[in-house]
Specification:
By secondary structure, the chain is of the alpha/beta class. The protein has helices at residues 3-10, 63-69, 72-79, 104-119, 134-137, 146-156, 159-180, 188-201, 209-218, 273-290, 303-311, 320-330; strands at residues 11-14, 54-55, 60-61, 91-94, 231-240, 245-253, 259-268, 295-300, 335-340. It folds into three domains: 3-94, no CATH class; 116-218, no CATH class; 231-340, 2-Layer Sandwich (Nucleotidyltransferase, domain 5), CATH 3.30.420. The longest helix has 22 residues, at 159-180. The radius of gyration is 21 Å and the shape is globular.
Length: 343
Amino acid sequence: MGAKEVLENGVGCRIGNGKQVKIWGDAWLQPPHTRLFLPPNHVLSPDSHVDALIDSEVGWWNLNLLQNCFSQEEVERIGNVIISPLGQDDKIIWKGTPSGLFTVKSAYHMEMWRISRERGESSGEYGGGMECSRRIQKLTYEETDGRGLLLFFFEKLDNEEVLEALTVAQMIWLRRNSMVFGRGFSPPLKVISEVHSSLEDGALGSSNLAHFISGLEVGHSFWSKPPQGWWKINWDASIDKEARRMGIRAVIRDGNGAVVAARMSFLPYNDDPSAVEALAAWHAVKLGREMGGTCIIIEGDSMEVVMALRKNRYNYQNYGHLLEDIATSLSFFSICSSSACKA
């Protein structure tokens, strides 16, 4: 396969407002099947853009229209796409890195994975010498406590190896989710390839280690009241695979711990836990604005989302525009901060 074909296979569209991307033929759905193809006598025009499928009043997919125009499988594939509630423009992204930015190495990894998959070879072939550091391979940890595992990493490994170990753990977790939610089971070669791409891409930079260390030392694991005069907005999200829907919850409490407002809603199924958590954070911030909050703390149990909001630097990943929408909405508050909490 030539360089042009490699690039075409790796490039996709991230839907913001859907005005620049065509429903039929453009690559805007989640892998592995990123395109819809126009069947004969379809009710929608061949030139229709994705915004025709969005309910502009609610800033989300028009579920009734989707169910009338597409099969259930296609409805779920479309529902898996996170759009921008504030109507950002669509963007071209690279599917081979967590940040959505192109790197030559990630293109190489994607092509090696495609070759090994097409030829049906074992995970050890076409590995291109990719493997974890030897010190990580030889680690043995018998406990199941996540906090203890992180402390173990910091004790036994240097900073670069800690980054690698955390990235491996993240990719194994995503591999598990992929199997649970019916997207197939990735072989080890693909997992290691994604680890190398993520490390090169800097998805978890060394500067973020301070957040992990401070979180371990301070132990901000459980809920606490906000300062007087502040509101704390907690969000949570859940995915119900059997009911094919996701639940989003947000609750606002004042400095006395009293509930100011709460909201719970159900949305069409999405199988990306991080994207669903980001969507829940958006609804939490939206609730805070509707209630007229001024000084707020937003708090959820997704460290990935919280760290992205703290960095205030967003990327081209599939829900990066949602994080940007959250940041835009947070700018309307007088004072705000974000934190992670288990309960």
